Amino acid sequence: MPKAWIQERKRDYYYKKAKEEKYRSRAAYKLFQAVEKYHFIKNSDIVVDLGAAPGGWIQAARKIVGSKGFVLGVDLKPIEPFSEHNVRTIIGDITEQETLQQILELLPKKADVVTSDASPNISGIWEVDHARQIDLAQQALKIAFETLRPSGNFFVKVFQGDMLDDFITKMKKHFEVARILKPKASRAKSSEIFILGIHLKEAAD
Ligand SMILES: C[S@@+](CC[C@H](N)C(=O)[O-])C[C@H]1O[C@@H](n2cnc3c(N)ncnc32)[C@H](O)[C@@H]1O
After folding, report:
1. Cα gap 62→183, rounded to integer Å
2. CA 60 to chain centroid
3. Residue 86: how many CB atoms within 10 A of its CB?
4. Phi, then psi, of 73 in degrees rounded to 5
5. Which candidate among 39, 42, 170, 203 keeps its CA 20 to 30 Å from the CA of 123?
6. How far, CA to CA in Å, does 72 sit from each of 68, 109, 110, 137, 168?
7. What is the dihedral sign for C-alpha 31, 36, 39, 43?
8. How many angstroms does the Cα of residue 120 sit away from the middle of ligand 1?
9. Whether residue 202 has pLDDT greater than 90
10. Average pLDDT in the 56-72 region?
C-alpha cells in the first residue's frame, strides 16, 4: 500500500472512529447514516449483506436488528466469525447460482432487507470499474428479487457513470421508491454512491 494512502487513512475521521468503536471497517458508518435517514432496516429484521467482508456492515446491521433479528453476510473472502448467535457468514460468489441457494437455505424466512457493498478489485480505469460495479449491483439485485419478502428493501453501492441511469430506471420499476444517497462517511472524492429501493413491488425477473 502506498505510504501516502496509509497516512491519509490514519488521519481519516471515520477510520479512527471505527477503530475506537470496534467496527471492522469505516464503511459501517455509511450504513448507519443511510438507515438513520431512511429507516430501511428495523429492529428484528432479517438482513442479507452481500460483499460483506471484513464485516462492518454486518456489525451495523446487527446493532439495528438486535437480538431478535438475523444477519447473513456473504463474501468471496472468509469473514472472521461473530460471537452473536444470530449472525451467520458464508464464503460465496454473488454471481454464482450456488450462492443464492446457500442463502435461501440459511435464511429463517424471506429477508426484510438486502444490502450490498460488493466491489470489484479497482483497476483505476473509470469505465471498467463502473461497468464491473454495475454488474455486481445487478447480481445483487437478482439475489434481492429471490430472497426479499414483498415490500422488502434493497440498498446497493454503485459507481457513477453512464450505465447508472439504466440501473436506476430498473430500481424505480421494481421498488415503490428509489433514492440516490451519498452518506457523509463516503469519501467525497470517491465516485461511489448508493441506491436505495424501498418496498419491493413484486417478485420480478
Ligand atoms: C468494500 S468491501 C465491503 C466492506 C463491508 N461492507 C464492510 O463494511 O466491512 C467489498 C467486498 O466485496 C467483495 N466482493 C467482490 N466481488 C464479490 C462477489 N462476486 N461475490 C461476493 N463478494 C464479492 C469483496 O471480496 C470485498 O470484501
Report:
1. 19
2. 11
3. 16
4. -100, 140
5. 170
6. 14, 12, 12, 18, 26
7. positive
8. 8
9. no
10. 98
* SS3 labels along 28-49: HHHHHHHHHHHCCCCCCCEEEE
> How far are the Cα atoms of 3, 9, 10, 149 from residue 100, in angstroms, in the given order?
39, 35, 37, 15
Instruction: Indicate which atom in ligand 1 lies nearest the CA of residue 27.
Output: 8
Looking at residue 180, what is its pLDDT?
Answer: 97
Domain residue ranges of the chain, discontinuous segments joined by +: 25-200
Does the structural domain 25-200 have CATH classification 3.40.50.150?
A: yes
State the pLDDT at residue 66: 98
Q: Is the CB of 77 under 6 A from ligand 1?
A: yes
Show which residues are catalytic: 157
Does the Cβ of 119 fall within 6 Å of ligand 1? yes
How far apart CA 56 and CA 29 sit, in angstroms, is 8
